[in-house]
Specification:
This protein is mainly alpha-helical. Helix content is about 55%, strand content about 5%. A hairpin with a 2-residue loop joins strand 3 and strand 4.
Length: about 450
């Protein structure tokens, strides 16, 4: 194993080397493979409110707003502030976990899946649940089977609200029939948003062979998948932020991508998802995305083929798929390099030079907003782009230089050591020009800013 192999393990497969990490990395592949076992959740995230608790807070806020409008009272500023502070705290802890993690391959994959199953803080009804979805649905399954991950995400209130399935009602369901009797012009109906994105983005992919009829059939299969409403809490017995409403479900057999599903109720949608999770098109589509994320914008076809075979052989066991990529020689070739997204850039700089300033948690959010990748706020359900073209334009590079200076300014005085930081991140692989620039820097802080702004630091090689 060369020093470059160790650098790649930490900086491309991981989130960037921390001080001292490379020195103890005698077996880079073994270090990565050792992470492919379920571990305890990060201690920093313990005690955060569950989605059910957030939902209860959200319902209380909406009720207080209605009462304020009806009675002309003050707006519930305290409840709004509490929800926003809780969200900001969880987002700050998310960065802290990434910066401090000793299993940064796992943390990289948590971020990958959060972008694959994208929801956005821009949509108010989904915003309170976006960070909890990563914690509750993605983290527990990041090393498990894709089918379990898929079901956990699609039944989470963040996804159900973001893609409007919580409002989707079967045309022949009891809820729809009662609504039509009351007012034929305002009866609820089928919403296909979630079904379409499950097929196009989450599983088989845009070229996976599905049709519009498949979208409609899947949408019918998952009618009734929703979120508890205030009346559910009044009746009591609510145990989860997910609810299946049998009276909103469209009954009858469904056909999705050539397979007939005769199950009743929620079991029907679960059966469709289970089949999609092991579909050959899903194996290829998602394996390609993983390889593109970890290797290069144009990953070697042989790696994708090997990952696809592992997926199909193991029924979507993600640890086996990751291990196949890690063990493949082409994943470590000279062409294997990725341009850092803004989030990659910020996290790797923090891992190299210090930790987030707990006194200014909003500073990181401001930095990422300026660079065009606000946390958990993609522009579409497709998530943020994962290629160099998206993030390497002239304006983006200039903002990255400015951000390098801001990140260096936040490093504590005692940790300012640009040459030591360069050695910790790159070992002996950093180019001579960058090393010379660091030695000529007017101050240690300027030197660290130069390191963060250097071309070498922008790439996960």
């Amino acid at each position: 194993m060369t020093r470059q192999t160790a650098v790649s393990a930490t900086n491309r497969f991981g989130l960037g080397a921390r001080p001292g990490e490379l020195a103890g990395l005698a077996d880079p592949q073994g270090w990565l493979l050792a992470q492919l076992h379920p571990g305890a959740p990060p201690a920093a995230l313990a005690g955060l409110p569950t989605s059910l608790e957030v939902l209860q807070q959200d319902i209380a806020l909406q009720q207080a707003r209605r009462e304020a409008r009806q009675n002309g009272g003050d707006k519930p500023a305290g409840l709004v502030k509490a929800l926003r502070q809780g969200q900001a705290r969880e987002l700050a802890l998310r960065h802290q976990v990434a910066v401090e993690s000793q299993a940064s391959f796992v943390e990289r994959m948590v971020r990958f899946w959060s972008n694959h199953f994208a929801v956005s803080l821009d949509k108010p009804v989904a915003a309170p649940y976006a960070a909890p979805m990563e914690r509750e649905a993605i983290r527990p399954h990041v090393i498990g089977r894709f089918g379990e991950l898929l079901l956990a995400v699609e039944t989470h209130p963040a996804m159900l609200r973001f893609l409007d399935n919580a409002r989707s009602v079967g045309a022949d369901s009891m809820v729809a029939m009662r609504a039509r009797r009351r007012n034929p012009d305002k009866a609820p109906g089928l919403n296909e948003n979630l079904a379409r994105e499950i097929l196009e983005l989450h599983t088989v992919g845009a070229n996976g062979g599905y049709t519009q009829a498949d979208v409609t059939e899947l949408a019918k299969a998952i009618t009734g998948w929703g979120v508890p409403m205030p009346q559910d809490f009044k009746r009591g017995g609510v145990q989860s932020a997910f609810v299946f409403r049998a009276n909103a479900h469209e009954g009858g057999a469904r056909t999705v991508m050539g397979k007939r599903y005769r199950q009743a109720g929620m079991d029907q949608g679960k059966a469709v998802l289970a089949q999609l999770a092991v579909h050959p098109a899903t194996a290829r589509h998602v394996s390609s995305k993983i390889a593109r994320h970890l290797i290069s914008d144009a990953p070697p076809p042989g790696v994708v083929e090997a990952m696809t075979r592992a997926w199909l052989k193991t029924d979507g066991d993600l640890a086996s798929v990751y291990a196949t990529l890690i063990r493949h020689p082409a994943a470590w070739g000279a062409q294997a390099r990725k341009f850092k997204t803004p989030d990659d850039f910020v996290v790797s700089a923090l891992r190299a030079g210090g930790r987030p300033d707990d006194r200014r948690p909003q500073a990181l959010a401001t930095l990422l907003n300026r660079m065009g990748q606000p946390t958990l706020t993609p522009r579409s359900p497709a998530g943020f782009e994962d290629d160099a073209a998206q993030w390497s334009g002239p304006d983006a590079l200039w903002k990255r230089v400015q951000s390098a200076q801001a990140l260096a300014e936040a490093v504590p005085e005692a940790l300012l050591d640009p040459l030591g930081t360069a050695q910790a991140v790159f070992a002996d692989t950093l180019d001579a020009d960058t090393l010379a620039a660091l030695r000529r820097a007017e101050s240690p802080r300027d030197g660290l800013a130069l390191l963060f702004a250097s071309p070498a630091f922008q790439w996960r090689t």
